[in-house]
TrEMBL record, chain A:
<dbReference type="InterPro" id="IPR003808">
    <property type="entry name" value="Fe-S_metab-assoc_dom"/>
</dbReference>
<dbReference type="Pfam" id="PF02657">
    <property type="entry name" value="SufE"/>
</dbReference>
<protein>
    <submittedName>
        <fullName>SufE family protein</fullName>
    </submittedName>
</protein>
<comment type="similarity">
    <text>Belongs to the SufE family.</text>
</comment>
<feature type="domain" description="Fe-S metabolism associated">
    <location>
        <begin position="17"/>
        <end position="139"/>
    </location>
</feature>
TrEMBL record, chain B:
<dbReference type="Pfam" id="PF00581">
    <property type="entry name" value="Rhodanese"/>
</dbReference>
<feature type="domain" description="Rhodanese">
    <location>
        <begin position="31"/>
        <end position="138"/>
    </location>
</feature>
<dbReference type="InterPro" id="IPR051126">
    <property type="entry name" value="Thiosulfate_sulfurtransferase"/>
</dbReference>
<dbReference type="GO" id="GO:0004792">
    <property type="term" value="F:thiosulfate-cyanide sulfurtransferase activity"/>
</dbReference>
<dbReference type="InterPro" id="IPR001763">
    <property type="entry name" value="Rhodanese-like_dom"/>
</dbReference>
<dbReference type="InterPro" id="IPR001307">
    <property type="entry name" value="Thiosulphate_STrfase_CS"/>
</dbReference>
<feature type="domain" description="Rhodanese">
    <location>
        <begin position="168"/>
        <end position="290"/>
    </location>
</feature>
<protein>
    <recommendedName>
        <fullName>Sulfurtransferase</fullName>
    </recommendedName>
</protein>
<keyword id="KW-0677">Repeat</keyword>
Length: 148, 301
């Protein structure tokens, strides 16, 4: 058996292992902790949130953007306090994607959100919100690489 | 033993004033014996960030829906769920939640399918409670489990399936609760949407579009009865007490909010919520669809 898929970058693999080491109800608590750790937007985005793209898949309004700097990706997002699940998803991607190379981000499997063991505690439909954010982040990276 | 009713005058004009409570009343009565406060949110973590003291959580995805089939839990599952939350058959349930009570109303609708008698909504929902600076806590309640009887779900009185809706076309009012763009079919494609979606846009023929928010005031409470009547009854959609009515949206949650208004606040006896809604209809083979702003004709039989 061969597996050609690139290994998950360490920082994403660690997040996944952290979730999988917990019981399902504890995973919800970990997601809550992530939601509290969502970093504030850098000033240039905080001042003009229109620069961020709205992610329609999320049932709550969330704006997110993957910015390419040289060959390194930074992921920024903002979501309201009353949407902690969405904030948690965004925070996982902010911690998991930021600092990776463009190639590494493009290689992140589309089903990464489903690998966190949250399908039962959170539901697959809600996880679509994170999948949407990830898909868009990749497209934003591709667009910036093409424009460079 | 049901809890006392909220005597607030503005509630008394509704057909069933016993179905709503004000934030002020709940703040005074939340510890009443025989009353359990239940939070139902869109966001699965919102309850954990702070909830009304003593409130238990019921999540629509993980508690009410089955994990595999697209359907609700059965009588045994419902008995286990409510019993575990300390709710007996004669307990007064006060529901509240985020997003103007969409999911709280959805939960109220599911509880009504099981015939739980005393189900009330906190008018204005979580937003109003928070906006008024009322108490929230992160302390998890530890309800004493009680025996809740196993009751068979009634899927005929307040629930409509696709076949029922097909049969309904041309016979009674159909209320589409979605946004105008979803109703006309203009909005369907969602860029980069990875998994779930709808193949066709538009609405069920004969449906009138009354977005859910039409029924609420600025603070998220339901509008006074006279205003609701002007929207849905004489002067508006023209619904009468003799009509059989069906409501739908995308997955049945926003339409539960309108179902609640039509049935409990206006007292229209026969209102069914079509929970399959557009995520079923817009994907179904060989069902009629109308595009554009007009309701469209019922298909010839």
């Amino acid at each position: 058996m061969t597996d050609d898929a690139p290994a998950l970058p360490d920082q994403l693999a660690e997040i996944r292992e952290d979730f999988l080491a917990l019981t399902e109800s504890e995973r919800l608590q970990l997601l809550l902790e992530f939601s509290r750790e969502l970093p504030p937007l850098p000033a240039r985005y905080a001042d003009s949130p229109a620069l961020l793209e709205k992610v329609e898949e999320c049932q709550s309004p969330v704006h997110a953007f993957a910015e390419v700097d040289g060959d390194v990706v930074h992921f920024y997002a903002t979501a309201p306090e009353e949407a902690p699940t969405t904030r948690g998803f965004a925070s996982i991607l902010a911690q998991g994607l930021s600092g990776l190379t463009t190639r590494e981000v493009l290689d992140v499997p589309e089903d990464f959100p489903l690998q966190l063991g949250l399908t039962r505690a959170v539901s697959a439909l809600r996880l679509n919100g994170m999948a949407g954010m990830l898909t868009r982040a990749k497209r934003q990276v591709v667009e910036q690489l093409a424009a460079a | 033993m049901p809890a006392p009713l909220d005597p607030t005058p503005r509630l008394q004009e509704y057909a069933h004033p016993e179905r709503l409570v004000t934030t002020e009343w709940l703040a005074a009565h939340r510890d009443d014996p025989g009353l359990v406060v239940v939070e139902s949110d869109e966001d699965v973590l919102l309850y954990e960030t702070g909830h009304i003291p003593g409130a238990v959580k019921v999540d629509w995805h993980t508690d009410l829906l089955l994990p595999v089939e697209r359907d609700y839990l059965d009588g045994r599952g419902f008995a286990d769920l409510l019993g575990s939350r300390g709710i007996a058959r004669d307990t007064t349930i006060v529901l509240y939640g985020d997003k103007n009570n969409w999911w709280a109303a959805y939960t109220a609708w599911v509880f009504t399918l099981f015939g739980h008698e005393d189900v009330r909504l906190l008018d204005g929902g979580r937003n109003l409670w928070v906006a008024e600076g009322r108490e929230l806590t992160t302390d998890a309640p530890a309800p004493t489990p009680v025996d809740y009887p196993v009751v068979e779900r009634d899927d005929t009185t307040f629930r409509a399936f696709r076949e029922d809706v097909l049969d309904h076309l041309g016979k009674g009012p159909l209320v589409d609760i979605r946004s105008p763009q979803e109703f006309t079919g203009e909005r369907l494609h969602i860029p980069d949407y990875p998994e779930e979606g709808v193949l066709r846009g538009g609405h069920i023929p004969t449906a009138h579009n009354v977005p859910w928010a039409t029924a609420v005031a600025e603070d998220g409470t339901y509008k006074p009865r006279a205003e609701l009547e002007a929207i849905y009854q004489q002067g508006g959609l023209g619904i009468t007490d003799d009509d059989r009515v069906v409501t739908y949206c995308r997955i049945g949650e926003r339409s539960s909010h309108t179902w609640f208004a039509l049935h409990f606040l206006l007292g229209i006896p026969d209102v069914r919520n079509y929970d399959g809604s557009w995520t079923e209809w817009g994907n179904a083979v060989r069902v009629p669809i109308a595009a554009g702003a007009e309701p469209g004709e019922a298909p010839a039989r």
